[in-house]
Amino acid sequence: MSAGSWLFKKIALDPLRADIQRLSEQIGQQLKAHEQTLASINGRIKDHDIELGSHSVRITRLEDHVGIREDKGDSDNED
Q: Domain of life of the organism in this record (predicted)?
């Protein structure tokens, strides 16, 4: 290895490799944090879906009980 190549490696490439390694670690940490956030959001969405389904069942039962449930195909715009 020539002196110029060795000097270029020490001055330019080694610090660049260190920067790339540091950035890679930071990106990895950010990805983990985002994955955890997305998992939390997904869990909340599932909880809300379950709650919404429960409310929908209750509303349907109430509509059936009171007799106000519309059949599919019925509309308020009948002539």
A: Bacteria
Measured torsion, CA atoms of residues 50, 55, 61, 67, in degrees rounded to the nearest 10: -140
Q: At 65, is the secondary structure helix, strand, or coil?
A: helix
Q: What is the largest CA-CA distance in the chain?
A: 94
**In the chain, domain spans:** 41-65
* pLDDT of residue 75 exceeding 60: no
The kind and range of the H/E element at 44 are: helix 14-66
Could you tell me if 63 and 69 are in contact, meaning their C-beta atoms sit under 8 angstroms apart? yes
What backbone torsions phi and psi does residue 47 show, to the nearest 5 degrees?
Answer: -60, -45
Q: Specify the pLDDT at position 76.
A: 56
